[in-house]
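[Meeting: bench + compute handoff]

Bench side (C.D.) handed over the final construct sequence. Compute side (W.E.) agreed to return the predicted structure before the next meeting so the bench team could plan truncations. Sequence as handed over:
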Amino acid sequence: MLKTTVAATALCTAFASAVPHAAQAGKNDDTLRVALAEEILNLDYNYTTKREYIIMAELTDATLFDLDPETQEFAPAVASDWEWVDDTTLNVDLREGVTFHDGSELSAEDVAYTYNWIVSDESEAQAKGTIERWLETVEVTGDLSLRFHLKSVYPLVLRDMAQRVKLRPEGAYEAEDGSVDESAMATDLVGAGPYKVVSFEPGQEVVLERFEEYWGEAPAIENVVVRNLPDIGTQQAELMAGGVDWMFKVPLDVAESLGNMPQAAHLSGPDLRVGFLVLDAAGYTDEDGPLTNVKVRQAVNHALNREEMAEYLIGGSAKPIYTPCHPAQFGCTEDIPAYPYDPEKSKALLEEAGYGDGFQMDLWAYRDKPAAEAIAADLEAVGIDVNLRYVKLASLNQARAQREIPAYFGTWGSGGTADTAAIARVHFAGDSDRNLSGDGQLTETVLSAEQTADPEERKKIYEEALTTIAEQAYWAPLFSYSQNYLVNPDLEFPLSPDGLPRLDKASWK
């Protein structure tokens, strides 16, 4: 592996100068050149979902609230103040002087239009699935004031406002003849963020310029050019040749190798994605199977060497975890029962459970094959005969939907939401095929955390739920993931604890 990486690096260096690029990257022309493998085809984040589109929206768009990634506290953004009238009525005041990129001044009508459009019958916005859970309607109460009417108590309202809904001018999704035009902002975006779009070639390049009338803190770098470069080898070559300043989702071995060269710096930051082993405690695949025994599930937990997996297989800033959530998420207490690596304890628990001679278990996985193989090897070492079924994600999803999977190695990124709700409601509540606990009381506990807006009460509820999950060993939490970047050594790029790249915070050294 090392020889292959070094050879690849040498090859990149050798042909770097031959790769054409738009201009020499760096601080001389105050232009940050960014490489993304995923194509940017739509500039309107209200209609997209991928991480790359979130990165773009952070540059071009504005929201009512901001979320501090360090403290997870909310602060006004386009909103200047807010007040809960009751549990389902929220008053919001807007700051004066917020300007859209087309020069028009943002008003309460614009905000009401944006939210009401997203939840309307005509809208097929990607943001609709998140917002229609809680929003009934938005009422204009003044030039710069609004009232949000909620369907029910929902504690993540401000978080959704801060992360999911990007503000648009009134009528943004209407054509000149009055018909609906959902793609109106896809290529001709009118946002209110720190950068405005100068030019856009879908799937190729987006050119951004600092918006001088931006209402917030002005970004340090004047221009940003986002280039779609699907091949990581091309990205590497461009970085080494000076045509790119920033790239992410870099394989660890590549990042470490190129990061030792003077043309690049390797940065490793946290990511909200976590890896885990899900166990069929409910007995969907075998109602009397070994995994329905809590001691067997505890044995599985003790058998896994999370520390070595995190350090040597995931690398970077990855850490072992012992909670069924990311420690950076709101409500993810680490003060619950944990299962440190202890093969002898694992064997003893198997003996107590009546499986001293082990048992056969199918283990499904779809990504990070070395980690899946390490999990299998650790379980084999305590006597569990593992049949590793490494498949494509579509095959795993299909088998899981049909309740054919006794155990699987999965990952979850929570959609970038640093709240335990984003992982708990999917994996431990209701009849989701990801929930293999079969624990109806746990479902009630998890969902009750979304029926109160009191943060301290929510923390208590999640502590109760996470304690149950740990005591019953419904999961074997494994590790957090790491995000690896390669950047121009002259670039100061701060890393956020939630793993979201915020390019508007970058500056030159």
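W.E. noted at the follow-up: Residues 1-22 have pLDDT under 50 and may be disordered. C.D. will use this when planning the next construct.
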